[in-house]
């Protein structure tokens, strides 16, 4: 089959590799019909995530048709499914608590040592996201092997287009969990850093959870426009000082909840960010944490901090004092996708959540390297790239 | 060594030889090289005990054990992988057994590498069962002994830890997780 493989920083290629096979009773093989490039993939593309190996197949947002099933799979050939990016067994203690992204058994035993070393506990398994999280082949390919197929994939009813449901695999539940982690109370003002897919879904979710106001922060005009479409007020941090603007906009109180949907590659010419970038280039640290610093400083006293954004390492100048003195609460984590999928599928069916607005580009799998480059170089216009194996119109179809 | 009250690993290496270790049941074991590890498994104690008690099933999750033949209710024959396609074999006897709680075994007298192991099971309320594995072995002197010791020390602490994780996966999820994509990759990984 053909698959998008990682070979190093800014070097991804479409290679021919062996087809996946059923290896465990609960496995299923899915023929990919649609898969997306994620902001998290850019962290891999930019070489920020350790334990990548040349030839690793990327992609953790995907869906398709069931073409083969193991003896214990509950799926049937021909079904259309969306697959969660978190690989969870459904039967360990954490899965029992619906903490699917903390599953004990998704990550192969030999891969768990790295997480023990780095984080004190093994990480769970994720598709296409380095060997720290299992080394599983991802779904930016023609086919993918899906373990625990009786627990993860959700069957999609007829009549729904791929593009409407694809984001159930990651970013929609991630935006939703981000809002849920902000413990929003009716009437709250919520500030969201980052108007990428995660931030934009967090904006929508925050309103659905009762936020009176959502303030979205970014520097890309087009992305800020999308946030406005859902009723958010916006701050362009290149034109306005974010902290000062937030203080003014909230009558001096500060936002009740803050959401960092930026991540370890924060943009912008801020003093702390520049220091982080120099350190990263000297291998003294990897994460640029400007957005979470700013969110903590801007948050009101006794407020909540939600951090869907991905970080990987040990960081400097974390505003621990502000965090403590203001009595803040922080919630974060990889998304427990399986927990949110059924309700969010319903919300899509009922038209409560809009998903397709996000897709700016569609292309064939063969064009995936171009898709990465575009998503990396032009974040203003390229909000989401969806790859469809066999997509013939190679002329890039902008919306 | 203090009584183990949590999941922290008890791992000692040769430099800490003959150190006593608690196996999680309040009993002491002495040995040349000792590897211990505790894991909590979300299954009933009796079920875990029953699986382990059938030694022929151990190779399913013990990666370096090729085969265990059960010769009698207490005696078994172990075939363990060595480097470059070699293998080492010995007979082992169950030396202590408490239904649902504990199994201890030791190699028979003439084994090349005297070794022993024990596995203990304790209730952990709604979290299932706390399983503690302890393996002790005593590499002989001399060149052959060195070779064999080297083989055993194919990162034995890591091996034990990974074996226990695989046992957990098998018991909780019904299968052992692999990120291989093809059968061929899976076999290469196991080799
Ligand atoms: N927790 C999870 O399970 C999970 C799942 C998916 C993605 N993520 C993470 O969420 C984050 C966002 O993902 P995405 O797909 O939306 O990424 P993205 O790269 O498309 O979006 C990030 C946005 O942040 C903006 N930004 C950069 N610096 C900023 C700053 N200083 N202030 C405000 N905005 C700034 C960028 O302009 C961009 O629009 C990433 O870190 C990603 O890895 C986490
Ligand atoms: Zn993603
Ligand atoms: Zn689990």
Short description:
The complex is a heterodimer of chains A (399) and B (191). By secondary structure, chain A is an alpha/beta fold. Chain A has helices at residues 39-45, 93-96, 112-119, 162-165, 171-181, 197-208, 221-229, 242-249, 271-281, 290-298, 320-325, 337-349, 368-377; strands at residues 2-8, 11-16, 28-37, 56-57, 61-69, 80-83, 86-87, 125-126, 143-146, 154-155, 189-193, 213-218, 233-236, 257-260, 304-307, 329-332, 361-363, 385-387, 397-398.
Please explain how this structure is put together.
The complex is a heterodimer of chains A (399) and B (191). Chain A starts with a strand and ends with a strand. Chain A is of the alpha/beta class and 399 residues long. Chain A contains 13 helices and 19 strands. In chain A, β15, α11 and β16 form a beta-alpha-beta unit. Chain A folds into 2 domains: 222 residues, Medium-chain alcohol dehydrogenases, catalytic domain (Quinone Oxidoreductase, Chain A, domain 1); 159 residues, NAD(P)-binding Rossmann-like Domain (Rossmann fold), CATH 3.40.50. In chain A, strands 3, 5, 6, 9, 10, 17, 18 and 19 form an 8-stranded mixed beta sheet that branches. In chain A, strands 13-12-11-14-15-16 form a 6-stranded parallel beta sheet, sandwiched between helices. The model of chain A has no long low-confidence stretch (mean pLDDT 93). Chain B has 191 residues and is an alpha+beta fold. Chain B has one domain: START domain (Alpha-D-Glucose-1,6-Bisphosphate, Chain A, domain 4). In chain B, 24% of the residues lie in helices and 32% in strands. Chain B has 4 helices and 9 strands. A 7-stranded antiparallel beta sheet of chain B has the order 3-9-8-7-6-5-4, covered by helices on one side. A two-stranded antiparallel sheet of chain B has the order 1-2. In chain B, β4 and β5 form a beta hairpin. The longest helix of chain B is centred in the C-terminal third of the chain and has 18 residues. Chain B is globular and about 45 Å long. The N and C termini of chain B lie far apart (36 Å). The N terminus of chain B is likely disordered. Classes of the chains: A alpha/beta (399), B alpha+beta (191). The complex binds nicotinamide-adenine-dinucleotide and zinc ion (ZN) (2 copies). The site of nicotinamide-adenine-dinucleotide (NAD) has 35 residues of chain A, from α1, α5, α6, β12 and α10. The site of nicotinamide-adenine-dinucleotide has 35 residues of chain A, from α1, α5, α6, β12 and α10.
């Amino acid at each position: 089959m053909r698959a998008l493989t990682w070979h190093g920083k800014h070097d991804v290629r479409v290679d021919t590799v062996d087809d996946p096979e059923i290896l465990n009773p609960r496995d299923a093989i899915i023929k990919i019909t649609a898969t997306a490039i994620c902001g998290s993939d850019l962290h891999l593309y930019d070489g920020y995530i350790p334990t990548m190996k040349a030839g690793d197949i990327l992609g953790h947002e995907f869906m398709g048709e069931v073409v083969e099933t193991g003896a214990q799979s509950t799926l049937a050939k021909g079904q259309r499914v969306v697959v969660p990016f978190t690989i969870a067994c459904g039967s360990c203690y954490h899965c029992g608590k619906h903490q699917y992204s903390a599953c004990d058994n998704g990550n192969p035993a030999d891969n768990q040592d790295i997480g023990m070393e780095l984080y004190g506990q093994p990480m769970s398994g994720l598709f296409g996201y380095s060997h720290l999280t299992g080394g599983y082949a991802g779904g930016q390919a023609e086919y993918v092997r899906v373990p625990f197929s009786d627990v993860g994939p959700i069957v999609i009813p007829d009549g729904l287009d791929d593009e409407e449901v694809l984001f159930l695999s990651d970013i929609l539940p991630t935006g939703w969990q981000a809002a849920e982690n902000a413990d929003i109370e009716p009437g709250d003002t919520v500030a969201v850093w980052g108007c990428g897919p995660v931030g934009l879904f967090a904006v929508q979710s925050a309103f659905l959870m009762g936020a009176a106001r959502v303030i979205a922060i970014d520097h890309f005009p087009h992305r800020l426009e999308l946030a406005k479409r859902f009723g958010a007020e916006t701050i362009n941090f290149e034109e306005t000082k974010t902290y000062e603007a937030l203080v003014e906009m909230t009558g001096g109180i500060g936002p009740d909840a803050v959401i960092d949907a930026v991540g370890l590659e924060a943009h912008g010419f801020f003093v702390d960010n520049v220091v982080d970038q120099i350190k990263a280039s000297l291998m003294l640290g990897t994460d640029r944490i400007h957005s979470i610093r700013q969110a903590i400083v801007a948050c009101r006293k006794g407020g909540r901090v939600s951090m869907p954004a991905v970080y990987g390492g040990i960081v400097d100048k974390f505003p621990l004092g502000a965090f403590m003195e203001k009595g803040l609460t922080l919630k974060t984590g990889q998304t427990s996708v399986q927990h949110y999928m059924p309700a969010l599928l319903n919300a899509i069916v009922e038209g409560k959540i809009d998903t397709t607005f996000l897709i700016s580009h569609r292309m064939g799998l063969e064009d995936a390297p171009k898709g990465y480059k575009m998503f990396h170089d032009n974040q203003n216009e390229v909000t989401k790239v969806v790859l469809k194996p066999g997509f013939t119109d190679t002329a890039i179809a902008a919306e | 060594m203090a009584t183990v009250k949590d999941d922290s690993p008890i791992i000692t290496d040769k430099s800490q030889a003959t150190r006593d270790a608690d196996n999680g049941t309040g009993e002491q074991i002495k040995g040349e090289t000792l590897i211990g590890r505790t894991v909590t498994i979300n299954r009933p104690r009796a079920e875990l005990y029953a699986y382990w008690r059938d030694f022929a099933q151990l190779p399913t999750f013990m990666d370096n054990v090729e085969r265990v033949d059960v010769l009698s209710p207490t005696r078994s024959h172990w075939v363990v992988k060595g480097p470059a396609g070699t293998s080492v074999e010995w007979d082992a006897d169950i030396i202590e057994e408490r239904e649902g709680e504990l199994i201890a075994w030791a190699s028979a007298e003439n084994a090349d590498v005297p070794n022993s192991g024990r596995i203990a099971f304790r209730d952990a309320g709604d979290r299932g069962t706390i399983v503690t594995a302890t393996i002790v072995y005593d590499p002989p002197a001399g060149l052959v002994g060195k070779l064999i010791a080297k083989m055993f020390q194919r990162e034995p602490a890591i091996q034990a830890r990974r074996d226990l994780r695989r046992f957990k996966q098998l018991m909780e999820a019904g299968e052992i997780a692999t990120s291989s994509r093809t059968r061929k990759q899976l076999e290469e990984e196991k080799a």
